[in-house]
Amino acid sequence: MSIGKGITHIGLGNFSRAHLAFFMNEYSRKMGPSEWGICAVDRDTPRNVANSEYLRKNDFKYQLVMKGADSKQENTIQVLRDYINMGKEPEAALNQMCLDTTRVCSLTITEKGYYCDVNTGKLFDDNPEIVHDLKNPSAPKSALGLICSALNHRRLNGGAPFTVLSCDNLPGNGHITENAVTQFADLLDPALHAWIKSYVTFPNTMVDRITPQTASPEDPIVSEDFVQWVVEDKFCNGRPYLEVIDNVLLTEDVMPYEKMKVRLLNGSHSALSYVSYLAGHRDVDHALANKDVHDFVRMYLSEVAQTVPAVPGIDLEWYQAKLLDRFSNPNIKDQIQRLAEDGSSKMQTTMLPVIHEKAQSRAPAPMLALATAGWVRYMAGVDDFGNDIEITDPQAATLQPIARAALGSRNSRPFLEAAFGKDIMKQNPAFAGKVQAWYDRILHEGVHRVLDSLDEFAFGFADVDMGDGDENPLTRLSLLQMIKLTYEDLEHMFQAYDADDSGYLEHDEFKTLLKDFFTRIREELPKVDLTTIFGAAASDSLLDEVLEALPDPDDDVVVNMLLMRLDANDDGKIAPDEFVDSFHEVVTIRHHQLAVDASGPVPSEAIHVPPMTFGGSWCQIETWARDDGDSLDNESKAKAKAASA
How many helices (H) and strands (E) does the chain have? Predict the structure, then answer.
């Protein structure tokens, strides 16, 4: 038996060749030749024509190279049976879809291919291709036109329906496909609409495999070694026995898996892409090798994971760690520019629902706000080094001029209204304000400095509001950087709070340490004359603002943010060297860089905090010595040693 053409796939890009075709190849390898081969249908573009010519020349076979961080596996994919250029041969594409042997029509056509408003679901019935296909159903240009014309032919000739299987990275992709197809069908023929509603199924799916672009058709398809496919078991005309394939899950409810993947993987892809590109990174693995980008992605994942329901069989903490490993894979060389494309569509599905849920629960969303501010800045079309950015976005003509105007007005709100709708200001003014605060900082300090300062944000100082038009001095000089802790102090702190003598600070132990630390800061700050430090910038309300901005150590979000910053090994606990080195860096020794980056003069005075007690261990906190050194003078060291003896 030869391999058949039971699946017609519309939109044969690199991803579908590394995902759907890979799985069907695995099916053929395990079960032998079957009807479940693939006939590809695609639009008439130079790249698609080149792909078709290459595949035909090679009997529709191609190489797939799956790369891990330290592994490589090559596969010959040979389940493609034909490749039809829909633009040049619409009748051939339609005939293939009308054959009884076509039992599944699968899709990877991206958000744009469904011709629907992502918020309302309304079909863009005035789109030129949709208008054409309604008038010329025998020569369709769009996927919707092709599907509906084929189904109508089957209906009128007593044929069986086929399953329409979306494999796009969209939440509720089956529902989206059904909505688009049935709206088009209703315009074409209301009787077709009723028939589709009765007989055609649109399973939801969750698809996952990172697959970079390739330079030419002759290049092998390269993907990561991780792959996953979760499929709603709802087929109307038979299906392959997918249960025999590794990493495929048939289920009645895809939603938990889909929400996990779209919000965590796709959302963090978008989040990292904009700030990373602005900061000069072009490859994802290089960006993740930067500690500040890595920490931002970790904090983003932790924040968004709180909105993901329990997923059967998957630990969300493991999944987040796995994503960071996958993004850091040096052998994939995924392009940041690829991740940044089509932001106006992606943000609607990956981030906006999370923003709304956070607002409804009154939960903070600082990393979502930073990611959004990065997108606003990116859409202006120039990075932090003055290099032009080629913007690829369906709403570029509308959004890019607004983003460029924001560079002068320093106001991100018109962009948010244009991208998300005016209700964003009414429904979530706090979030819009956070985006504006981050956007101000990105313009004033640059993305590098903003990402480097996330530890300050974790300590609460980025939240101090100086009022409209007034610079917040704490964005360039954190009060905690005026407090000096020696390495000896930190060693004693660690020992005092390692209550079970395990050699590590667990979550609750670290939480207790933070609570004592911030309690002491709250006690000492009111004794300080802030005008000696900040001069005219120190308004009468600044002390109250600072005290209010100090984080609540009883808030697990705060504790987790700082724990991630200090946990270099990413094992959920803090070792002595991690605590001493990282806490010292986070709290104290970044003064020199701040002094260089500061837009104004660095204050010459510092807060003098007397020696303080941490759980029975004395830690000497002395006046901040404003020099390039990272330790106190010998006299202070001697005092610290004597105090801790």
Answer: 32, 15
